[in-house]
TrEMBL record:
Classification via InterPro entries: STAS_dom, STAS_dom_sf
Organism: Actinokineospora auranticolor
Domain STAS, first and last residues per copy: 17-110
Family annotation (SUPFAM superfamilies): SpoIIaa-like
Domain of life from the UniProt record: Bacteria
PROSITE patterns, A to Z: STAS
CDD domains: STAS_anti-anti-sigma_factors (cd07043)
Listed Pfam families: STAS
Protein name: Anti-anti-sigma factor
Length: 137
């Protein structure tokens, strides 16, 4: 009997990638959250390259990676391709990153070629503690 190599029907929870695109006046921001590696990078690559090469009046493309939990070394090359595509069309390209993703981009020395802006994740405010009937003096 031959071994079975069927793929699981549900995706691996850590390999999920969510993307959103925000178009403003002359600017496009592609926000990613989740895990970017060779298995999940295709839609991210497509969104970035579409924004960088579109025949419109875009002057700045931003890749927001502040909610990305993992960026593979191979997938980091997508950022360099996007930067070069923007440069050829006279557009600015920048990357927002934090935490391990920022550290990885700095270790690869991509910050020498691409504008990488270190950021912090938005802080969610904790709910106020419930008031009690006790008076503390």
């Amino acid at each position: 009997m031959a071994p079975s190599f069927a793929r699981p029907t549900t995706p691996h929870p850590r390999r999920e990638l969510n993307l959103s695109v925000h178009r403003g006046t002359h600017a496009v921001t592609i926000t990613a959250s989740g895990h970017i590696d060779l298995a999940t990078e295709a839609p991210w690559h497509d969104h970035l390259m579409r924004a960088c090469t579109a025949a419109d009046d875009t002057t700045r493309v931003t890749a927001d990676l502040t909610a990305v939990t993992f960026l593979s070394w191979a997938s980091a090359a997508v950022l360099l391709r996007a930067h070069r595509a923007c440069h050829r069309r006279g557009r600015a390209f920048r990357v927002l990153a934090t935490g391990p993703v920022l550290t990885g981009l700095q270790l690869t020395r991509l910050h020498e070629e691409i504008t990488i802006i270190p950021t912090t994740r938005p802080v969610t405010r904790a709910p106020a503690p419930a008031a009690s009937g006790w008076l503390i003096a």
